């Protein structure tokens, strides 16, 4: 009897294994099909978006005369800036629209003006209460009825706003501003918004800083995820999303998240002709860096207003302390300060009581000072999207301004230690690539990153590379890589993890003795050039980063990337012709010498 039971159990187990095997095959097939479907959907939405966005929205419409009357009589403007009229016409045509426009390009007019063309109310979702309050003050000065609801709004004001929304009674409100947090948590507000919609009075939903919706964006905010429900609740109400920065992958993610796939996408040119972009070598120690900043602020930017972005709260406070000790009127600004303190610092800077604010990226949205003459990034930016938006706070008055990155490779590893996803790591590497470029126009680099056509734009010497063009050559650095490879192999065999500093020290035979390699000669170049080469090996995938997490910090080590295909070929790095290190020669494409054999891994 027991043998029969055992046979039955064995038979069932075999059947289970067979089914599990089939199930694994089906799961893999399902995974492949899902991936293929998602890729096709992205391709379809991309084609649909491009087709929809090719339409000319700048022509005449039934409301054209009224639009220009409002522009002249209410907003006191003579003409529209790039893409403003197209965005206004598209949203008045009840199209879902994503508008990409540089900082200071006039995005707010694209929803403020349409709200006055038609009856009803526009809902504006904006991330900062301070920014909302500034806009409402400015709108009321123009005679436009606008209100906001937040935790500090009085009961009487809330009652009046809800009465208008739910019953169309009382003072007409053309624009109602809320934060995404308020929208997500206030059932009362959503209930009255649905009543407003039922009365036919909700004519538009505007989402400012719409890139915050995207997990691929540089400033993802969880509360923005709630906005994905709006299209399902108010299906025939057009959505107008506004941002200064979004790559195509971010645009597609926003479309999917907001359920507006294939919507019209309008792009104003990313080129800011009055901004001079440059990358300068960052002094090696803190005191020298402070001296350098002092020199810039007392000579190049004497009595001019600016922003200095730093990587951490500690950096802002130390830089501020050091510059104040040198007699400069500056103050730090970061998210850990009380709101009242932040407002006071901002206000003093606006009134030029401070020459510069030393800030983290918390000093961002809502900063509208036209005469900012310089924006300096004290460390490598975390992303080109963030850098473009932050540097774009300079020169909003149209006059020349400078946007400087102080670069050194060690900052890259500092930033890298702070990011936790592959997407964020790729963004940091894009910033590194921007800094490593030897002769590419900076404006062109930015436009290329955002997939914005640059062919029709001329830099007119408004970046370091175009102002001082120098001939660049490809240099064969395979022999240098062999030396680095040998040092890395030696460290690995000794069980030592190499940081950038330890690697460079070993190369220069100044580090720990067990890390030095007798067969590797000391390089005939300065350390900045040596770091430039290491950075290129990292960019080309020959080296990779390995992070070690401790209770208090994250250490980033360099490792050989043994899977890299770059090892199969000759390794070429671009140098300015007059900066080629001794012992290295420009690569001759006509040389018949075969590429080196791949090193054993």
UniProtKB/TrEMBL annotation:
UniProt subcellular location: Nucleus
Catalyzed chemical reaction(s): ATP + H2O = ADP + phosphate + H(+); Couples ATP hydrolysis with the unwinding of duplex DNA by translocating in the 3'-5' direction
Record's keyword annotation contains Disulfide bond: no
InterPro entries hit by this protein: DEAD/DEAH_box_helicase_dom (IPR011545), DNA_helicase_ATP-dep_RecQ (IPR004589), Helicase_ATP-bd (IPR014001), Helicase_C-like (IPR001650), P-loop_NTPase (IPR027417), RecQ_Zn-bd (IPR032284), WH-like_DNA-bd_sf (IPR036388)
Chain ranges of the Helicase C-terminal domain: 292-440
Gene3D superfamilies: P-loop containing nucleotide triphosphate hydrolases, Winged helix-like DNA-binding domain superfamily/Winged helix DNA-binding domain
GO molecular function terms attached to this record: 3'-5' DNA helicase activity; ATP binding; DNA binding; four-way junction helicase activity; hydrolase activity; metal ion binding
Keywords: ATP-binding, Coiled coil, DNA-binding, Helicase, Hydrolase, Isomerase, Metal-binding, Nucleotide-binding, Nucleus
Gene Ontology CC terms, in alphabetical order: chromosome; cytoplasm; nucleus
Any one GO biological process: double-strand break repair via homologous recombination
Coiled coil: 2-50
Domain Helicase ATP-binding: start-end pairs: 88-264
Main EC class the enzyme belongs to: isomerase
The enzyme's E.C. designation: 5.6.2.4
NCBIfam families in the record: recQ_fam
PANTHER family membership: ATP-DEPENDENT DNA HELICASE Q1 (PTHR13710:SF105), DNA HELICASE RECQ FAMILY MEMBER (PTHR13710)
Recorded family membership: Belongs to the helicase family. RecQ subfamily.
Name listed for the protein in its UniProt record: ATP-dependent DNA helicase
Species of provenance: Agrilus planipennis
Taxonomic lineage: Eukaryota, Metazoa, Ecdysozoa, Arthropoda, Hexapoda
Gene symbol of the encoding locus: LOC108742946
């Amino acid at each position: 009897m027991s043998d029969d039971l055992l046979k039955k159990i064995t038979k069932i187990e075999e059947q289970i294994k067979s089914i599990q095997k089939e199930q694994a095959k089906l799961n893999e097939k399902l995974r492949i099909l899902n991936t293929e479907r998602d890729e096709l959907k992205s391709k379809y939405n991309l084609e649909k978006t491009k087709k929809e966005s090719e339409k000319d929205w700048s022509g005449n419409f039934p409301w054209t005369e009224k639009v220009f009357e409002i522009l002249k009589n209410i907003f006191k403007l003579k003409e529209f800036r790039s893409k403003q009229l197209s965005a206004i016409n598209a949203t008045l045509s009840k199209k879902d629209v994503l508008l990409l426009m540089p900082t200071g390009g006039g995005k707010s007019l694209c929803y403020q003006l349409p709200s006055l063309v038609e009856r009803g109310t526009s809902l504006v979702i904006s991330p900062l209460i301070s920014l909302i309050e500034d806009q409402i003050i400015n709108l009321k000065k123009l005679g436009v009825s606008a209100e906001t609801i937040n935790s500090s709004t009085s009961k009487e004001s809330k009652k009046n706003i809800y009465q208008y929304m739910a019953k169309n009674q009382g003072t007409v409100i053309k624009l109602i501003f809320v934060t995404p947090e308020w929208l997500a948590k206030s059932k009362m507000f959503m209930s009255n918004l649905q009543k407003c919609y039922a009365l036919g009075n909700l004519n538009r939903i505007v989402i400012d800083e719409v890139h915050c919706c995207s997990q691929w964006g540089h400033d993802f905010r969880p509360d923005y995820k709630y906005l994905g429900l709006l299209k399902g609740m108010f299906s025939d109400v057009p959505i107008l999303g506004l941002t200064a920065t979004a790559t195509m992958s971010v645009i597609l993610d926003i479309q999917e998240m907001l359920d507006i796939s294939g919507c019209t996408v309008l792009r104003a040119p990313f080129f800011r002709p009055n901004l001079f972009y440059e990358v300068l070598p960052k002094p090696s120690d803190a005191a020298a860096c402070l001296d350098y900043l002092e020199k810039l602020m007392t000579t190049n930017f004497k009595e001019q207003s600016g922003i200095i972005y730093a990587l951490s709260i500690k950096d802002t406070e130390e830089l501020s302390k050091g510059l104040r000790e040198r007699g400069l009127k500056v103050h730090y600004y970061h998210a850990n300060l009380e709101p009242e303190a932040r407002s006071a610092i901002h206000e003093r800077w606006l009134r030029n009581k401070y020459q510069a604010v030393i800030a983290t990226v918390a000093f961002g949205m809502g900063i509208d000072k036209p005469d900012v003459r310089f924006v300096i990034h004290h460390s490598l930016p975390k992303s080109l999207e963030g850098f473009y938006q932050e540097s774009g706070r300079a020169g909003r008055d149209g006059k020349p301004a400078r946007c400087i990155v102080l670069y050194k490779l060690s900052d890259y590893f500092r930033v890298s230690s702070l990011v936790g996803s592959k997407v964020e790591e790729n963004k940091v590497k894009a910033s590194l690539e921007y800094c490593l470029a030897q002769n590419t126009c900076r404006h062109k680099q930015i436009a290329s990153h955002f997939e914005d056509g640059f062919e029709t734009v001329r830099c007119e010497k408004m970046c370091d590379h175009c102002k001082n063009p120098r001939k660049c050559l490809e240099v064969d650095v395979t022999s240098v890589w062999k030396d680095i490879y040998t040092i890395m192999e030696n460290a690995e065999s000794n069980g030592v993890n190499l940081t950038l500093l330890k690697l460079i020290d070993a190369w220069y035979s100044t580090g720990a003795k067990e890390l030095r390699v007798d067969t590797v000669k000391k390089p005939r170049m300065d350390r900045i050039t040596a770091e430039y080469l290491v950075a290129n090996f990292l960019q080309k995938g020959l080296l990779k980063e390995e992070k070690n997490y401790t209770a208090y910090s994250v250490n980033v080590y360099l490792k050989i990337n043994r899977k890299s295909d770059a090892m199969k070929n000759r390794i070429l790095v671009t140098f300015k012709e007059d900066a080629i290190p001794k012992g290295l020669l420009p690569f001759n494409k006509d040389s018949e010498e075969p590429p080196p054999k791949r090193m054993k891994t």
